[in-house]
Amino acid sequence: MLVLGLDSATQVAGVALIDDNRLVAETFFNTRKNHSQRLLPMIAALLQEAGVKPAELDGLAVALGPGSFTGLRIGLATIKGLAHALQKPVAGVPTLDGLAWNAWEVPGLVCPVLYARRREVYTALYRWQEGELCRLTPYQAVEPYSLAASLKSYNMPVYFLGDGVEPYLEVWRQLGPSARFLPSTGILPRAAQIAMLGRKRLQTDGPDDLFRLKPLYLRPSPAERQNP
Q1: CATH C-level class of 103-186
Q2: Is the pTM of this model over 0.70?
Q3: Which of 53, 174, 215, 220 is the most buried (most CB within 10 A)?
């Protein structure tokens, strides 16, 4: 199954193409440039280099959030436009799920943290069990000190990753030797993980409703706060 995955939920812009379990191509930028100007050229270049025509795709996957309100809207609009034009099925994948997959079968908790502004991070807790990544908590926006305090009760290693690691590094280090950190090459969102998880969803649960698919914000968007 040939699936194109897209992730623009954070400052990272990523596009990946997978063929079943094989990663065919991936483009990754962490340069803080405008996603709206970058995504379509990235997709076109990636498909051209892979020798794949858009019509040959079997499905599309996109990171739903949480993350940047603007980045999520741009990513979802891009995928919806492609899906409508190509008549292809779409799967939405929570950003935190894709990020957690970077910590492949680590022996402890997986704690992705995305910088959420307002002195909060977006997070959820995961653990590998018999080869499956299981989410233990809801997706949430939480104050870093509160999160660190709750993690102490688990009494096991906690693997942190995401763009919320660096801004609150001293908070996470309060866990002492239980705090573990992935290398910089594996700490940020990967479109390849979104494509892989999207393929699994398309095969097991079927596609999402293109017209009802919405970003996973966790908190009201700026427009919603202005117009309650």
Answers
A1: alpha beta
A2: yes
A3: 215
